[in-house]
Design brief:
heterotrimer; A alpha+beta (182); B alpha/beta (574); C alpha+beta (378); B: 574 residues; alpha/beta; Glutaredoxin; Rossmann fold; Ubiquitin-like (UB roll); 5-stranded mixed sheet; 26 helices; C: 378 residues; alpha+beta; N-terminal domain of TfIIb; 3-stranded antiparallel sheet; 17 strands
Chain lengths: 182, 574, 378
C-alpha cells in the first residue's frame, strides 16, 4: 500500500483525545497541509510534546501525506528532535569554541561523574538530563550552562555540579515524600 | 501605506524621543539576558516609575547589543546636551543607583548608602571583579562601572550593519523608521530599476558575509537574468559556527534592517516570495523577526502592494532544527522543502535552480543587512571602506582569552593586532597570545607572526584560513593546538550529513588519527597520513562542510607542527 | 546537441545528458557506485569525479550536464590516486570477507578495489553499523556491508513507489532503515526485491542465495515469468539444476532490471518436491481403465484433509497420450450427453496470450460453448 496518491485528510484531533494534537492540527492547517511544512510541524510537535513519538509521527505522516519512512528520516536527522522524554531537570552545557577553551569539557566530565550518565542521556529515575548545545551565543560569559532554563555564566565544574545536585536532591526528596504519603 | 506616511510616523517618533531629557537604554540581547539583564531592565523601569518625576524626564528603552558583551549587562544613558554614559556589569542594585544618579528623585529611600569597598580586586580578574561589582556601595564603586566610550574597543569600530543595534527598540517599527528605516526601499521602488539596484550592489563591492565571499551583486544579477514565473529570496540565518552570534544579534536587535535588505534584493531580482531560515537554537531571533514581519504586514510594507507600489512581496520564517550543514545553500533549500538537510551537487546553482527548482538568491543575514546602507549612502561610499578587494565592514564575534569580548564591526583591512590588543584589550591572566582562529570549524589559526596581516578575504585565504561568518576566537598559550584542532574535527564528525564518503568516514578517520597522536601513540607516518587524508577530504567532499572540515587541522599543522611532532614517538629529538 | 571532448575524443551529446552518461554511451568507462541509469542522481560516492578544464578541483560527472566546448579528463594519475583514497575510506568500515562472501564476483566495491589495487585499508578499521536484520523470508539486511549509496532508497521511492525505507540519523551513524526500525512486514514494503538486485554489495541478499555457491559457479537461464500478463523477463541463477535466485537484466525489454515479488521470490514452486511433473489419473478411474492393478475406492473423507497428503496415494502417473485421449473422450461424451454449455473453461493469466487464444478457440469451436472466464476476474 502506498500513500502517494491519497488526498490529504483534514485532521480533527487524535483518537486518544489528547488535546495537544490540536496544536499540531493548527500548525498543519497554517501551512495548508503542504508536504514541505514537515520541518515546521515537527518543530511544533517537539515544542508541544517535549519529544517525538511513534503516534505523533504516524499522525503527521498521515495528514501531510508524506511516507512515514521519510518523516522518520527527517526526524532522526536533526538534533533538536528527541524521542526520549527529557528528565525533570535539564542541564545544557555549551560546547561553543569560547566555552571549550574555557573548560566546558571539565564541566561535562564532572556532571557525568556525579550523575553516572553520558551527555545526551537521562538518569534512570528520570530526574536529570545532560545535554550538549553547540553554541548558546553568550560567549562573553564562557563557560556557559543552562540549568532548568536559567543561564549561568563563568561557571566552574564544582559550582555546576553542586547546583545540579541540589535541585535533583530536592526532587528526590519530594518524590520520596510522595511515595511515603501515597 | 506609502512611504510618505511611514516617514511621518518616523518623524513623530523621533520628536517623541527628542522630547525626553534622557533616555536610558538597557541591552536585552541574549548574552546580556544570560547575565541578568531582564532583572536590570525591570529594576530600571520600576525605579523610573517610582521617581514620580515629570513625564519627559526619562524613558527606559529595551534595546539590543552594545558590543562589549563581556561587561554585560550594559546600560547606556543618553542625555540631552551631554555625552552618553555607558555602564557595564550592571546589577539590579547598581541599576537603582544609575536612576538615582541621573533622574531627579523625589524620594530619599532610593539613594544608596556609602560604605567601604574591596580595593584589592583587579579589573581583569573577571569572576571576582564581577562579584565585587555587585556589591556597589560607594561612588568609587559606581564610577568603576562606567566604561569610557572612547576606548579602542569602541573607537576602532565602524558601524554599518550594527548602526541601529543598541540604539533602537527592536520591537518597535516606529523606532526603525525614526532612524531612517525603509527609506532605501522606498527610494529603490520609486527611482531605480532592478538592473540599477543589482549594479549598485555590484559596484559597492559587497561580498557574501556568510563566509564564501561571493560578490553579492553578481549573484543578484544571475537570478535577475533568469526568466521564471517564480523566484525566491532566502536569508540564511542558520548561524551554525560555534562562537558566532553576529547574525543572531542583527536578527534580534534590528530585524527590520534585515527585512528591508531582503526586500530590496527581491525587487532587484524579481522575487515575490522569501523566507528567513533561522536556526532552532535562536528562539528570540525567531520571535523578533516574526514580530517585525507582522508589523511590516500591518503597515503594507509587506504584501500585495508594497508601500502602495506595484511591487509585491511576502516573507515567512522557517526554523532549523539543529543541523550545522543546513547553513550550506542546497542543504538549506532541502530543509525548507521539508527534507533531510543533505546538500546536492552544484551545478546547478541555486541561482538557476534553487528552492522548488526556481531561481533563488540565498544571502547571509549580515550581507542583507548591509544593503539598506549601500542604497542610502551609495556604492561609492561603501567601496571607500575596506581594501581593494574586500569592501565595507565585517561584524565579528570576538571571544576567547581576551579582556574585552563581544560583538564588533570593523572596516575590512584592519589588522589582527589592532583587534587583539587594542579592541580586545590584550590577553588577560598574564598569558601570551598564541593564535587567532577565524572561520570556525571551516577556518584556521593565525599565529603571532602574522598578527599584522589585514583582515580581508584574500589575506585570510592565503594564510590558510577563511573569513568565515565572523567567529573570531583568540587563544592563549594555555591551549594545545592538536587538541584545539580535534575539537573542531569532533564538531564536523557530529554535523556531517553522511551523504558523501570523504566527509562521513574521512572526518572520523582524521579524528581517530588526532586521538592517536594526542594519546602519544602516533608516529611520523601518522602525521603524513593525517596530511594526506586532510587533502583527500578537502578535494573530494561534496559540499563546503567536508571541503573545509580539514582546515583547522591543516592550519595547525602548518603553523604549529612542532606541537604535533612532540606528540610523536619516533620524532627526532631537537 | 552539445559537443564536448572526453579523454581526447570528440563526443556529441543530447541536451540534458550528463558527462557520465555521455561517456558511458561512447564506451568510456568511469567508475561509479551510487549511480544507476534508472534512478535520480546522488553524487555521494565521489568515484565518478573527473577533471573539467577551468576547474581547480575534480567534479562528479554524474551530475554534470554536458555543455559545448567542455574538455573532460576521466583518467589520470591524480584521479586514480583520489579514487584509491576514496575506496580506502569505504573499506575502512567494510569487512573484507571476499573469501566467503556470496556477492564475491558481482560486488561493485570489490570490482573497484581490484581496479585500483586497494587490498586493505590504511586506516583504523571501524564498522559504523554492525547490524544484521533477518526479519523476513525473502532477503537479509546486513548493514556492515552497506556503503550508503542510497540506491535502495531511491528505487523504493522512484520506481516502486513504496518508500518503505529511508536514510536514518546522520553522519557516521547514518544507516538505511524502516520507520522506528520496524520489521519490514510492518511497513509499506511490498517485498519486490528491487532493492536487493540494485544493491552493489552484500548488504542485501536473497535468503535463498546464502551459502549456495559463488557467482561464477551459477548457471543462468532467461525465461518469461508465468505469473501475469505483463510477461517480464526473468533470469534464474541455478546451481546443479536448482534455482538459487531470480533477477532480471538491464536489457530485458519489458521490465529491465525490475521485477515484482512474485517473479523475484515466487519461483519455489518450480522445484518444489510435490510439484506435478506428469499427468495423473485418479486411482479408481485408472483401475477401471486397466492402467493399474490396485482396486482403489475414493475414501469417505477427502485426501486433502489428511496432513501432508501424498499425491501418489490417490493418483497414478500416466503418459501424455493416455491423458489427452482420456480427456478428449470424456469431454466428447459429456457434450453428447448434456450439451456443450454444460462445460465451462477457466483460463489463466499464467498462460501466454497465444495459449489463451487457442484455449478460447477450443472452447468456442471445439466444445461449442461461450462459457469462458479468466482467473483475473476473481
Amino acid at each position: 500500500m502506498t500513500t502517494q496518491n491519497q488526498p490529504n485528510t483534514e485532521s480533527e484531533g487524535h483518537p486518544s483525545g489528547d488535546d495537544r494534537y490540536l496544536s499540531i492540527d493548527k500548525s498543519m492547517r497554517q501551512f495548508k497541509y503542504e508536504k514541505d511544512s514537515l520541518l515546521e510541524v515537527l518543530n511544533a510537535a517537539q515544542e508541544v510534546f517535549g519529544h517525538l513519538s511513534r503516534d505523533l509521527l504516524i499522525y503527521i505522516a498521515t495528514h501531510l501525506n508524506v511516507p512515514l519512512s521519510q518523516v522518520y528520516g527527517v526526524a532522526t536527522f536533526y538534533h533538536l528532535f528527541t524521542f526520549d522524554p527529557q528528565g525533570e531537570h535539564n542541564c545544557i552545557i555549551c560546547k561553543g569554541t569560547a566555552c571549550h577553551v574555557k573548560g566546558a569539557d571539565e564541566i561535562i566530565a564532572a556532571l557525568s561523574e556525579e550523575f553516572q550518565i553520558e551527555a545526551g542521556e537521562t538518569t534512570e529515575d528520570g530526574l536529570f538530563s545532560l545535554t550538549i548545545a553547540r553554541c548558546l551565543g553568550s560567549c562573553g560569559l564562557a563557560p556557559v550552562i543552562v540549568l532548568d532554563g536559567q543561564v549561568y555564566g563563568k561557571e566552574t565544574p564544582d559550582a555546576v555540579t553542586r547546583r545540579a545536585a541540589e535541585v535533583v536532591a530536592l526532587s528526590r526528596e519530594t518524590l520520596a515524600e510522595n511515595v511515603e504519603v501515597g | 501605506m506609502n512611504f510618505d506616511k511611514l516617514e511621518e510616523i518616523g518623524n513623530q517618533e523621533r520628536s517623541r524621543q527628542e522630547a525626553y531629557k534622557r533616555r536610558i537604554f538597557c541591552c536585552t540581547s541574549t548574552a546580556c539576558l544570560s547575565a541578568g539583564a531582564g532583572q536590570v531592565h525591570n529594576t530600571l523601569d520600576q525605579a523610573v516609575a517610582a521617581c514620580q518625576c515629570d513625564a519627559n524626564e526619562a524613558e527606559v528603552v529595551k534595546t539590543g547589543c552594545m558590543g562589549l558583551c563581556s561587561a554585560g549587562p550594559l546600560v547606556r544613558v543618553d542625555q540631552k546636551g551631554q555625552d552618553p554614559l555607558l555602564y557595564g556589569n550592571v546589577s539590579p542594585e547598581s541599576a537603582q543607583y544609575i536612576i538615582s544618579k541621573h533622574v531627579p528623585i523625589q524620594r530619599d529611600d532610593l539613594t544608596v548608602d556609602e560604605d567601604e569597598m574591596d580595593q584589592s580586586v583587579a579589573p581583569h580578574d573577571f569572576p571576582h571583579y564581577r562579584a565585587s561589582l555587585r556589591r556597589i556601595r560607594t561612588k568609587t564603586d559606581f564610577d568603576r562601572l562606567i566604561i569610557p566610550l572612547d576606548i579602542p574597543f569602541f573607537a576602532k569600530q565602524e558601524k554599518v550593519v550594527l548602526n541601529e543595534t543598541g540604539r533602537i527598540d527592536p520591537d518597535k517599527i516606529e523606532d526603525y523608521l525614526a532612524h531612517g528605516g525603509y527609506r532605501a526601499l522606498a527610494h529603490v521602488l520609486e527611482n531605480m530599476t532592478p538592473e540599477e539596484v543589482c549594479n549598485e550592489i555590484l559596484g559597492s563591492g559587497l561580498r557574501g558575509r556568510g563566509g564564501a565571499g561571493f560578490p553579492t551583486g553578481m549573484k543578484w544579477n544571475f537570478v535577475r537574468q533568469e526568466s521564471a514565473d517564480q523566484k525566491y529570496v532566502i536569508v540564511n540565518g542558520d548561524e551554525g559556527d560555534p562562537g558566532a552570534y553576529m547574525d543572531r544579534t542583527v536578527m534580534e536587535d534590528d530585524p527590520h534592517r534585515v527585512l528591508e535588505g531582503m526586500m530590496i534584493c527581491a525587487y532587484a531580482v524579481g522575487a515575490s516570495s522569501g523566507y528567513l531560515y533561522i536556526r532552532g537554537e535562536y528562539p528570540i531571533a525567531v520571535e523578533r523577526i516574526r514580530k517585525a514581519i507582522r508589523s511590516a504586514r500591518r503597515w503594507q510594507i509587506l504584501g500585495r502592494s508594497v508601500m502602495g507600489t506595484d511591487f509585491q512581496f511576502v516573507a515567512d520564517v522557517r526554523i532549523g532544527a539543529g543541523a550545522f550543514v543546513c547553513g550550506e545553500e542546497t542543504a538549506l533549500i532541502h530543509s525548507v522543502e521539508g527534507k533531510r538537510g543533505m546538500p546536492r551537487m552544484r551545478p546547478p546553482y541555486p541561482s538557476t535552480s534553487g528552492l522548488w527548482d526556481a531561481p533563488t538568491v540565498i544571502n547571509n543575514v549580515e550581507t542583507m543587512a548591509n544593503v539598506p546602507s549601500i542604497i542610502n549612502k551609495g556604492a561609492a561610499w561603501y567601496a571607500n571602506i575596506g581594501t581593494e578587494k574586500s569592501k565595507g565592514t565585517k561584524v565579528f564575534a570576538l571571544a576567547g582569552h581576551l579582556r574585552n569580548t563581544g560583538l564588533i564591526e570593523v572596516p575590512m583591512g584592519i589588522t589582527l593586532r589592532e583587534i587583539v590588543y587594542e579592541i580586545g584589550g590584550g590577553i588577560p591572566g598574564g598569558r601570551e597570545f598564541k593564535a587567532a582562529q577565524t572561520g570556525g570549524p571551516s577556518g584556521g589559526c593565525i599565529p603571532m607572526e602574522y598578527l599584522d596581516s589585514p583582515v580581508d578575504y584574500e589575506s585570510l585565504n592565503q594564510l590558510g584560513s577563511i573569513m568565515g561568518s565572523g567567529g573570531l576566537v583568540i587563544i592563549d598559550d594555555s591551549t594545545e593546538m592538536p587538541d584545539f584542532a580535534k575539537y573542531f574535527m569532533e564538531f564536523c564528525v557530529d554535523e556531517s550529513c553522511g551523504k558523501c564518503v570523504p566527509c562521513r568516514i574521512g572526518t572520523v578517520q582524521i579524528s581517530k588519527l588526532l586521538d592517536k597522536l594526542i594519546a602519544g601513540g602516533g608516529s611520523l607516518e601518522d602525521l603524513e597520513k593525517l596530511d594526506n587524508l586532510c587533502q583527500t577530504v578537502k578535494t573530494t567532499s561534496l559540499c563546503g562542510l567536508g571541503q573545509s572540515a580539514p582546515n583547522p587541522v591543516l592550519s595547525t599543522l602548518r603553523y604549529f607542527r612542532g606541537e604535533y611532532e612532540t606528540l610523536v614517538q619516533d620524532a627526532p629529538a631537537d | 546537441m552539445a559537443e564536448l571532448i572526453i579523454d581526447g575524443h570528440k563526443i556529441q551529446a543530447e541536451n540534458g545528458t550528463t558527462v557520465l552518461e555521455a561517456a558511458l554511451n561512447n564506451n568510456i568507462d568511469i567508475p561509479r557506485l551510487c549511480h544507476h541509469p534508472e534512478l535520480s542522481v546522488s553524487g555521494g560516492c565521489r568515484l565518478c569525479i573527473v577533471n573539467l578544464e577551468g576547474y581547480q578541483n575534480p567534479v562528479p560527472s554524474c551530475g554534470l550536464a554536458c555543455e559545448d566546448g567542455m574538455v573532460v579528463t576521466t583518467k589520470n594519475e591524480t584521479l586514480s590516486g583520489l579514487r584509491r583514497e576514496i575506496i580506502d575510506l569505504f573499506i575502512s568500515e567494510h569487512p573484507l570477507d571476499c573469501f566467503t562472501c556470496d556477492k564475491s564476483g558481482a560486488c561493485q566495491l570489490q570490482k573497484y578495489a581490484y581496479e585500483f589495487g586497494v587490498d586493505k585499508t590504511r586506516h583504523e578499521f571501524e564498522i559504523s553499523k554492525p547490524l544484521y536484520q533477518d526479519d523476513n523470508p525473502f532477503f537479509i539486511r546486513d548493514h556492515q556491508y552497506c556503503i550508503l549509496c542510497g540506491r535502495c532508497v531511491r528505487v523504493c521511492e522512484e520506481v516502486v513507489g513504496a518508500s518503505a525505507i529511508d536514510f536514518v540519523k546522520r553522519g557516521f551513524t547514518s544507516q538505511i532503515g524502516t520507520p522506528f526500525d520496524d520489521p519490514l512486514k510492518d511497513t509499506t514494503c511490498v517485498f519486490c526485491g528491487n532493492c536487493v538486485q540494485i544493491c552493489p554489495t552484500a548488504a542485501l541478499l536473497p535468503v535463498s542465495r546464502l551459502d549456495r555457491g559463488r557467482e561464477w559457479e551459477l548457471d543462468r537461464i532467461k525465461t518469461i515469468c508465468g505469473y501475469c500478463g505483463v510477461g517480464c523477463q526473468i533470469e534464474y541463477a541455478l546451481k546443479d539444476g536448482e534455482i538459487v535466485y531470480a533477477q532480471s537484466t538491464a536489457d530485458a525489454p519489458v521490465n529491465g532490471e525490475f521485477l515484482c515479488t512474485k517473479g523475484r521470490f515466487g519461483w519455489d514452486f518450480a522445484t518444489a518436491p510435490d510439484r506435478l511433473i506428469s499427468p495423473m489419473v485418479r486411482k479408481d478411474l485408472a483401475f477401471e481403465l486397466g492402467l493399474t492393478d490396485e482396486n482403489w475406492q475414493l475414501p469417505e473423507t477427502s485426501p486433502l484433509s489428511v496432513r501432508n497428503p501424498k499425491i501418489e496415494d490417490s493418483f497414478v502417473p500416466v503418459g501424455w497420450d493416455t491423458a489427452l485421449d482420456l480427456v478428449a473422450d470424456r469431454l466428447a461424451a459429456i457434450v453428447k450427453e448434456s450439451g456443450p454449455d454444460s462445460i465451462m473453461g477457466l483460463a489463466s493469466a499464467r498462460c501466454t496470450n497465444e495459449e489463451n487464444y487457442i484455449f478460447q478457440k477450443f472452447m468456442r469451436l471445439g466444445i461449442g460453448t461461450n462459457n469462458l472466464d479468466h482467473c483475473a476476474r476473481l
